Structures are given as structure tokens and as C-alpha cells.
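Service request form, structural biology core

Requester: graduate student, group of Dr. S.
Request type: structure prediction, single chain
Budget code: on file
Notes: please return the result as C-alpha cells.

Sequence provided:
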Amino acid sequence: MDKIFLKGMEFYAYHGVFPEENKLGQPFCVDLVLEADLKEAAAEDNLEKSVNYAEAHQAVKTVVEEKCYNLVETIAEEIADEVLHAFSIVKTATVKVKKPNPPIDGHYEYVAIELTRPQE
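Core staff response, request fulfilled:
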């Protein structure tokens, strides 16, 4: 299966279980890997047979910025659902949502959730 990558998409949003996260917001970073058969798109040089990157980015942006969720897991699940619904060519979506600054003690680069969902 061929892969389309959208890596390091950055958004500012208001997700989290703590009230200050919902009030102050924080950055989120999303990586998206879409698996699809791109042979026909490549052979015909036809965007209609592939995934428009701008539309995929907009789908992710809508999920991350327009609603509030308690869990990063829910954000990732909603992104996968949205992308699989929007692009029938995509057979599998892998979504990684990173939360660089969660309000927990410790030193780390980020916390993240990664999930993979198939087209149903």
C-alpha cells in the first residue's frame, strides 16, 4: 500500500481534563499517514484519484480547532473518522496527536497518542 504523509501539523486548541487547559489552550501537533493505492493517480497524473493535501489538512484542523475534548485519544479517533469518511481512496489512516506541554510533573519532549484505523 502506498502512503501519504502530513507530518508536524501544528494547531492551538483547548483540549484537556483540567479547567485551565480548556481556558488557556495549548499547542497540539498532528502527524497523519494515509494508506491508499496511488498507482492510478500517478499513472494519470490526476489529483481526483488521490488525496488533496490541503483538504486533508483542513479536515484535521476542523477536528482539532473547532471542538473541545477531554482526551487526546478522542482527538485522534475523530481525526481518523473524519479523514476516512472524507477520502474513500484511503484504506488506512494512522494518526498521531502530540501534546507538548501537558500540565503534569516531569521532563519530556511530549506525550502522544497514535492509532491506526481501517476504512470500513
